[in-house]
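Before relying on records like the one below, remember that each one covers exactly one chain. Contacts with other chains, cofactors or solvent are not represented anywhere in the record.
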Amino acid sequence: MKKIFFIITLGTLFTAGCTKLDEGIYDRQVASEFYATPEGINAALADLYSEIRGKDWFIGYAGTDRGWYDLNEVSTDEMMIPTRSTGDWDDGGIWRQIYLHQWTPGHPFIEGTWNWLYRGVFKTNLAVDLLTNAKADPSKIAEAKVYRAFLYFLLVDGWGNVPFYTQNTLTVDQIPQQERSKTYKWILEELTANVPLLVADKGGQYYGRFNRWAGYALLAKVYLNGKVYGGTETDPLDGTKTNWDRAIQYSDSIILKGGFSLHPNYLSIFGDTNPGDESIMSIFIDANTAPRNIIGIRSLRAEQGSAEFGFSTWGGSTCHQDFYNKYEAGDIRRNQWILGAQPGGITYVKEISSLTSAGPYEGARNIKYKPVAPYNGNAASNDFVIYRYADVLLTKAECLVRKGQAAAAKTLMDELRTRAGLSAWPSNPTLDDVLDERGRELCWEGFRRQDQIRFGKFLATRDFKPASPVHVEVFPIPTSALNTNRKLIQNTGY
């Protein structure tokens, strides 16, 4: 496979991830010259990318549980983990709290994800410093800086005004809190300066890393949400442009120059290797050496898992029938949701009757990330797509609609409809059409909370959830962080 070279050559380095901020591959005094060599550069970068994979609770962008992915999926209309009538999935109400937007500063998902992100910031600051002092290849220094901007993007998106630092010279209690709009502007400055320095190579050792195309995808994504972070549609780096203009510009950098296309078979994108024609950046996962992906495991009931894979799956996550009904009958993408009789002698039904006592087989189950071997306990080896070409097309289409150019957006969205086995849109798409299409195409890929906030839909009444107060569009700063750094001010409403 195209990704093997990077993974094998760095295999021993991936195991050197740290459990404390002052441990890991950086806790030894090594001559700065080492970080100018290919081995040193790979060591510095591999330790960063090991953090993005799903591991234990809270750790990883996706593939784990109770972390960033769940905060951005279970809080939306496209994923629900109801307590079952059998008592399964109650867990003290933690899943309901996320779904109902009733989280508190002490919620374990929020604290765990915050700590994971800031561990990443600390390690990336150190990597940037080591590589810079060693005068390493500029593209590799740029890669570390882009990775750090990605982490701050997740922090700004989730928490708004966050502690900000790029040098590990301050103790935790002295790190200043920065306004959301200022960190947003810094992210744009950091990305526009460094993305052009990234290599354009695809696949091989750059599978799962920030190359130039992944950098452009990140830039487009940040600009797409720029009004949420900056409070205005105007590009903070150039007052003559809008955020929509910039998101289109960086989407076009991929569309016109990247050589990507829609993969012919939708469901085959999400297996043990994400195909390079559509996948722009993915997380390499192997249940034995680089765990883990539990997304499919968590959806299917135990009896089905035992019958199909030889181990009990968890039977938790599903979607409400209202979301399932967004798919037309002929939409190939609806096949990622399974209903009716299944291996193991069980039958799923579409309707979910309760958030607190749903029947064990209520709710369609998702097989987008249907577990692939090798397996290791409750872990599968599906790679997870962070950015793919379909998302880029939808980003550009959305911006065109917002700029009053819906006819041009229709052409892009028709490409997705054709791949899905559907006829062209009957008329020019509206913003509601774009949001629904993003849901159908990108469900369970980690973007729904972000999308719903941008479209003004996150707070609305839905499926057992009453309307939410506006302050829940950002998460609370964890109690533990406030206790450690008295300079921090809690987000309004908490």
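The first helix runs from residue 4 to 9.
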